[in-house]
Specification:
single chain; about 725 residues; mainly alpha; two-stranded antiparallel sheet; globular; Wings apart-like protein C-terminal domain-containing protein; ARM-like; WAPL_C; WAPL
Length: about 725
């Protein structure tokens, strides 16, 4: 608090004023009394003094009234003021006190008005900085979804001051349930400016991607964007600042996706990086041309012109030049390839990188509803070009060569990409399940395209893929590719199951290939053998988490292979005879010469091997194993129906003292599986109907076949299972 200054001896009070303006000094008390509300003697004077102060000889500003040259005196001599204009504590004199102080009331009114006008700030209470920020909306974000609090609009006369108005109480905000927490939402982070600061920091990247800029600058800026996105912290901040969508738009405007090899490769890598988080990819795909652009790029890519594929497979200089890749582009693409392999974390170091792989890696994460019928040709073209390499590679392996050629200048021509094949098969599987946005008018065109695919030998190529992946699982020199090969087998079997479901032409196309039945039986035996080995290690507490996961995948491959075999036997009468004549050794190590048909000395019939597997599952108490043995019981019923030879072989392989007991056990397992199958089908149908009833899916359901149609199309399976149960009852009663 400011302290009062000592009154100097030179300071005097004025007692009277003559007509000529003369003043007489009067005595002053040594100790001033307590200050009270009064009019300062520096502001109160006679009309003569005001006339003199306004004379031209001594001009005074109208608002500078703190110290005029001549001042009239008050009758009250006990007046004390602080010296100087900046230290004045003058207040207005109330009229009620004017008489007691000997001051004319009219004079007080005039000077009070002057005092108020010149010292308006002294009567006002300044707002705090918090109140000013709230009133002017400094902390409010333009994208804040919450309604702004009522505020007083600023007035030019008030200059931001409240001018004595009462404060308004802040409205009470009622937040939804669960919102009363200390966590900061993205909107609050934006309000604090974090997102804006981040965008300011990376703004130079967008400036370098301007379409009018030099090509080298655009390439460097695009490469720096994907390099920064490999950093986890940068990727997190990019998500919060909506950087991903903006970067996609800027990359497209800079020419990415329009034919430039470097920019197209960077755009493919950018799409794969965004696909690491399906939520971010869903938002980006719904607001841009994401899926259409990637499908368009995939259409033009092959082994001969895929930039990153040529770099990864160590293609020669001549091959790179033939693909139209200059030396400067080779340097940029080599750096991008190392970035994808070592810093992105998308693939293992031994996996060959390609533009096709990056694109399919992103497309397989996109919601299936984002794909349309127009995207199917590009997918089939890329898939078939990769599959067509496999039959010749299998033949080379049987003759004693390596499954994949060694790295060299021309090896890229004969080396398939297993990871890209897996992604394409998963996309095709979602299309066959009816998950794509294909309208009713396009269903016929889709069927025609698939029929043409069958005529082109697609079934034989997929079987060759299953054989190749099975070789990888057994070959120790290809151990680094086992995980991708196992996933690719599962994807291949799912596609074949969808194609052969109640489809006689597709079943016959598969059975025409000599590899089909030996490959299916070999997959079943190998999956069972590997699963038993891993289960023994798990029971002995010797298995790690990876081995436990591998055991689950072995069971998946076993069930999928049994499902494909069931489709072939159910749809075609010749399927029963083909498997009945197939010979295989249950302990065959998977030699090269046994791929077309087992040549081991101890080989037996494939039905006997299946009976051995069924015996193992019939003794298990596991619920999952109960489903497997029930499925095999239905399969055995289909194999024995209208085939006495198969019936004799299977009854000899089944456990039990006599045929009647064996059939009774088989019947019980088939009945249990039928009940399970019926209950599961009904639950899936109910779940599909509930999902179809949502308002968000109404438009999609009207325009295209729903996914429930693909689920309910297998209602015939219930009839088939019940027919098998009836057949086994008759067979048991007749035995």
């Amino acid at each position: 608090m400011l302290g009062r200054s000592r009154t100097e001896s030179s300071v005097i009070s004025i007692s009277s004023t003559s007509e000529h303006g003369s003043v007489e000094p009067v005595s002053i008390h040594g100790t001033p009394k307590k200050l009270r509300a009064f009019v300062s003697d520096s502001l109160v004077g006679s009309p003569s003094s005001r006339t003199q102060s306004q004379s031209p000889s001594k001009p005074q500003p109208p608002d500078d009234i703190s110290s005029p040259p001549v001042r009239p005196s008050l009758t009250n001599t006990n007046v004390r003021t602080y010296a100087g204009k900046s230290r004045s504590f003058l207040v207005a004199l109330p009229q009620s006190q004017a008489a007691s102080m000997g001051v004319d009331a009219s004079l007080v009114d005039n000077h009070n008005a002057m005092l108020v006008d010149s010292h308006e700030d002294d009567f006002e209470i300044r707002e705090s900085y918090t109140e000013l920020r709230q009133r002017w909306g400094v902390d409010a974000s333009e994208d804040d979804p919450r309604p702004p609090s009522p505020q007083l609009s600023p007035s030019p006369k008030r200059k931001g001051k409240m001018k004595g108005l009462p404060k308004q109480a802040a409205p009470i905000r009622f937040l939804p349930n669960g919102m009363m927490n200390d966590l900061k939402s993205i909107t609050e982070l934006r309000s604090k400016g974090e997102s804006r600061r981040f965008l300011d920091e990376v703004g130079y990247l967008f400036e370098g991607l301007e379409a009018k800029g030099a090509l080298g600058v655009r390439r460097s800026s695009a490469l720096e964007i994907v390099t920064k996105l490999c950093d986890v912290d940068f990727a997190r901040r990019a998500k919060a600042a909506d950087f991903l969508g903006r970067a996609w738009e800027v990359l497209r405007e800079a020419g990415a996706g329009a034919g430039d090899k470097v920019l197209d490769s960077i755009l493919s890598f950018y799409a794969a990086l965004v696909a690491r988080d399906p939520t971010d990819l869903l938002d980006l795909a719904s607001k841009s041309d994401f899926a259409s652009t990637l499908h368009h790029m995939l259409t033009s890519l092959e082994h001969l012109n895929d930039p990153l594929w040529l770099i990864s497979t160590c293609a020669g200089t001549g091959e790179l030049k033939a693909a139209g890749i200059s030396k400067a582009e080779v340097t940029l693409l080599s750096g991008l390839q190392r970035l994808v392999r070592k810093k992105s974390g998308l693939f293992d170091e031994e996996d060959p990188i390609s533009n096709r792989l990056l694109i399919s890696q992103a497309l397989v994460v996109v919601s299936p509803s984002a794909h349309t019928f127009s995207h199917l040709p590009s997918l089939i073209q890329s898939l078939t070009s990769e599959l067509n390499l496999l039959p010749s590679r299998v033949d080379a392996y049987i003759s004693g060569l390596l499954l994949f050629p060694p790295e060299g200048p021309t090896s890229y021509m004969d080396t398939p990409s297993i990871l890209h094949l897996d992604n394409c098969l998963r996309l095709l599987d979602s299309c066959l399940l009816g998950s794509w946005s294909i309208t009713g008018d396009e269903v016929g065109a889709q069927t025609q395209r698939l029929n043409a695919l069958r005529e082109e030998g697609f079934a034989r190529a997929v079987v060759a893929l299953c054989v190749s992946c099975n070789i990888i699982l057994q070959d120790n020199s290809l151990e680094e590719h086992r995980s991708s090969a196992a996933r690719c087998i599962e994807s291949s079997l799912r596609v074949l199951i969808n194609l052969t479901h109640e489809d006689l032409p597709w079943c016959r196309a598969l059975l025409e290939d000599d590899f089909t039945m030996p490959a299916i039986v070999n997959l079943i035996i190998m999956a069972q053998r590997q699963r038993r080995m891993l289960e023994k290690r798990t029971n002995a507490d010797e298995a790690d988490l990876e081995e436990v996961d591998n055991a689950a995948h072995c069971l998946d491959r076993l069930c999928l292979a049994l499902g494909l075999l069931t489709n072939l036997v159910q749809a075609t009468p010749e399927g029963r005879h083909v498997i009945g004549n197939t010979l295989v050794d249950f302990d065959c190590p998977g030699q090269r010469r046994c791929l077309r048909g087992c040549t081991c000395p101890s080989r037996t019939g494939a039905l006997a091997c299946l009976g051995r597997i069924y015996t193992y599952y019939s003794k298990s108490q596991n619920e999952v194993d109960a489903v497997v043995r029930g499925h095999m019981a239905v399969l055995f019923g289909l194999l024995m129906e209208r085939s006495p030879a198969n019936q004799h072989t299977l009854l000899n392989a089944l456990p039990g003292p006599d045929n009647r007991s064996k059939l009774a056990i088989l019947l019980q397992h088939a009945q249990d599986f039928t009940l399970f199958y019926v209950a599961l089908s009904r639950k899936m149908a109910e779940a599909s109907r509930e999902g179809d009833a949502d308002e968000e899916d109404e438009e999609r359901i009207l325009d295209q076949p729903s996914a429930s149609g693909s689920v309910l199309r297998d209602t015939k399976g219930e009839t088939v299972a019940k027919g098998v149960v009836a057949f086994l009852k008759r067979l048991r009663d007749d035995s």
